[in-house]
Amino acid sequence: MTVMHTPTSTGAPSGLDLIRREQSRQVADAHATWNDPAQQQRAQQIAESLRQPGAFLLLLGMGASHHANSAALAAYRSVGISALALSLDEALSMPLPPNAAQVTLLVSQSGESGELRTFLKQSGTDLGPTFGLSLSPESYLVRQLPSLVAAGGSEVGFAATRSYLLTLVLHGLILRAYSPDSAHTDLPALDGEALDLSRFGQVRSMVFAGSGALAGLAAMAALGTIELGRFPALHYDLGQLRHGPLELLSPETSIVLLRRSDETDYERQTAESILKAAQAAGCPSLSLVAEVSAPPLGLLTAPLKLCLPVQQLVIDLALQRVERVGEPVRSSKVTR
């Protein structure tokens, strides 16, 4: 399958140009955010709230922000924080009972989503300590709540690339502030890799899967594939994929597994059984493995290290299929 990509007739940056600009500065912005004393101080404030007796962490977001929260969830739990990640839609439809010990993080790269505004208006004074995480320093969210704000300003490109990485970094700041063992930790290496996707050119649907923190990145990959490539993509926790969904395997469906080099026996055996089933079905498959040894940020390290390769994978899949990648037909960057 070959798709021609033409520049915009107005000479304005194309959607793909905007995405690539975000990608080109995301690593620099990640390090600027990580080393910003103001953000470190705010992270200490959030960490202090999480140290209070009975503290419970609720992570709320929509779209890519929710998937970044899901990726961070395992890392919070691994340092002893009771934590839950919900979409704002679920929080609005099925509110949790009031809990004075609840610490809420509202996460939105734009700080302007409609669900975010509705949640804050409906919640009133029922919330305990509440903070924001955003990329947009002038946004509604940052005006309403004490917030961690990543470097570089709002993301302009349609699909989440830079914003997803920076949201993970903001979570990392909180984890570093909370855990004394991570006080002098630096970010892991953030880089991409070239992938041969020629065997994926004819597939008509994608499945992404990962365990724990990587399940959140798998969800982000599926969302990006739908947004940019405009073809079906599903995401599953690794084990859930074995409970029925293997029936969709065929030469026209591709599976991408996101894995860690230090995966548990359960995770390794589960991945191997899925790959065996994929091979028997003639299903193109790919494993992306994060090399992790004594991870400085615990379970957040793997999604940080695989973030850029997954970004490029999603964009390359879209380039095989769509002429004007990054130029939405029915959606917008900020869903108000």
TrEMBL record:
Biological process GO terms, please? fructose 6-phosphate metabolic process; protein N-linked glycosylation; UDP-N-acetylglucosamine metabolic process
EC number(s) stated in the UniProt entry for this protein: 2.6.1.16
Q: Which reaction does it catalyse?
A: D-fructose 6-phosphate + L-glutamine = D-glucosamine 6-phosphate + L-glutamate
Q: Where is the SIS domain?
A: 46-183, 196-328
| Coiled-coil segments | none
State if Magnesium is listed as a keyword.
no
UniProt KW keywords = Isomerase, Plasmid
Name the domain of life: Bacteria
Q: Which GO terms describe its molecular function?
A: carbohydrate derivative binding; glutamine-fructose-6-phosphate transaminase (isomerizing) activity; isomerase activity
Listed InterPro entries: SIS_dom (IPR001347), SIS_dom_sf (IPR046348)
Q: What is this protein called?
A: Glutamine--fructose-6-phosphate aminotransferase [isomerizing]
Q: What is the lineage of its organism?
A: Bacteria, Thermotogati, Deinococcota, Deinococci, Deinococcales
